[in-house]
């Protein structure tokens, strides 16, 4: 029951989970992920950067990327904390066979500890406007909506930004 840094040997399971969640996301009207993104090359880069983490309970049940890659569009959001006081979270998924068991919350709890230990005060993240499931999970785990943004040139493709403060900042 831990979140740990992923290695090359974890890639197959991460890709399997991704392949399982994409059709579920599509069926819910969420086009954020596809057969092309995120892909093996993207996850290999995350592994090589030491930013992909997997959550295990006997086997890998989910994953998340934790890094300092704050999208340029984040500069347009009125965050409580500046980017240099936070880490960003990306590409999170829970194996559909394990959904509904609180795995996402366990991933967030473990991520909070990793981020605090690294000396950061909060988390910035985003998801597709259509990804209502992830937005609910964010709110359930102490994240606050901070605004809407575009992450690419498609002006019809909206994302929503969320922030979590890991310490009482008095702000």
Automatic annotation (TrEMBL):
Highest classification ranks of the organism: Bacteria, Bacillati, Bacillota, Bacilli, Bacillales
Keywords: Acyltransferase, Transferase
Protein name in UniProt: GNAT family N-acetyltransferase
Pfam families: Acetyltransf_1 (PF00583)
One example GO MF annotation: acyltransferase activity
The keyword Transferase is assigned to this record: yes
Organism listed in the record: Corticicoccus populi
Domain annotation N-acetyltransferase: ranges: 1-167
UniProt keyword Metal-binding, yes or no: no
SUPFAM superfamilies the UniProt entry points to: Acyl-CoA N-acyltransferases (Nat)
Protein EC: 2.3.-.-
Family annotation (PROSITE patterns): GNAT
Family matches, as PANTHER family: L-AMINO ACID N-ACETYLTRANSFERASE, L-AMINO ACID N-ACETYLTRANSFERASE AAAT
């Amino acid at each position: 029951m831990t979140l740990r840094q992923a290695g090359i040997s974890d890639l197959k399971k991460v890709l399997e989970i991704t392949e399982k969640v994409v059709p579920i996301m599509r069926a819910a009207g969420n086009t954020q992920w596809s057969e092309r993104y995120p892909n093996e090359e993207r996850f290999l880069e995350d592994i090589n950067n030491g930013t992909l983490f997997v959550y295990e309970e006997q086997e890998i049940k989910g994953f998340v990327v934790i890094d300092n890659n704050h999208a340029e569009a984040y500069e347009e959001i009125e965050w409580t904390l500046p980017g240099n006081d936070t880490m960003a979270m990306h590409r999170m998924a829970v194996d559909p066979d394990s959904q509904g068991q609180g795995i996402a919350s366990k991933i967030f709890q473990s991520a909070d500890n990793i981020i605090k230990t690294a000396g950061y005060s909060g988390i910035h993240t985003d998801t597709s406007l259509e990804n209502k499931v992830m937005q609910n999970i964010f709110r359930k785990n102490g994240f606050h909506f901070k605004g809407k943004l575009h992450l690419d040139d498609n002006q019809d493709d909206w994302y929503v930004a969320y922030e979590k403060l890991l310490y009482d900042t008095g702000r």
